[in-house]
Amino acid sequence: MESVQGLKLRLRSISSTRQITRSMQMIASTKVQKALRRMHQNACYVEYFGDVVRNVVRFTGGVRHGYTTPPDAGCSAIIAVSGNRGLCGAYNSNVCREAVTQIRSMNRNVLCVAVGGKIRDHLRRRKYIVKRAFDGASESPSYETARDAGGTALELYKEGAVDSIFIVYTRYESALSLRPLTKRILPLPSMDGDDRDPRGRQMCFEPSADGVLDGVVPLYLSACVFGAMLNAAACEQNARIVSMDAASRNCADMIERLSLQYNRLRQSCITQELNEIVSGAEALLTTEES
Question: Which CATH superfamily is domain 45-243 in?
Answer without folding.
Answer: ATP synthase, F1 complex, gamma subunit (3.40.1380.10)
